[in-house]
Amino acid sequence: METVLLVMYLTKRCFKMYYFNNELNKFDILKIPEEQHQSIKGLPVSEVGLLVAPGATGKSMFVLNLILASCGLTYNHLIEKPVKTLYVSLEDRLEDIQRRLYAYKKALNISETTLQETELDFKIIENKSTERLIEKGVNQKDNKFFQELNSIISDGKYELVIIDTLIKSYTGFEENNNADMAMVLSHFNNMAIDNQCSVLLLHHTNKGAIGQNADINQSISRGASSLVDNSRFVLSLSKNEYDTGIICQSIKTNFSAPTRCEYMRAYKGALICEESEHELVA
Q: Which superkingdom is the protein from (predicted)?
């Protein structure tokens, strides 16, 4: 009987140590917190964020602006310091992305000398196959696609990982099911924690968020509300009044003040920041 009780006690201890292996107590009040590292303004490492927009708004062009700003080639109001960035395209071919990059080269007059003088680089990879990063009923450790991406992030020590788009990243889960979408985001959250990076997921808005007069709030994301609930940072993109550019604004920020900035269209759709950043009253 004593042996059985000892085994039960040790089993209980093992489970406790496995699931809850960190804690705070009253003396932690006295400790000075470590500085929070954010890959982009409002999105810390080890966290997951969403960027939502209607189709044909300019998500891809905005993301390329963000990537170029991350290595100092242009200005983006979300970039406060250089960030090593990985862009994972599950929707567009590299040839199409390269054309958009060339549009930025023309719009910003980027030269080879400028590139040589820029220390930080970015990487863009694509996979348009029918395989998915997350598959219902399949352990992520057995998902070779997911594990390969994890290895790329780990080996490259990327601070910001952008997944384009969320809908192309999983299979077997119902977009309008809260439990399903919470599970999908938990896998990306594990990716962020394991690699000490931020993960930004590109997603579409619902039909009610399309149009000039659409109300921009936390309910604009398409699908289950748990997508926004389980994201610590949510950005929206919308066309400006005359469709000459886009407006980027934060609709959920757990770690910074809300922001809003307008980007004007330049050469072949390249987006250039036209306004200074505005701090909004929360």
A: Bacteria
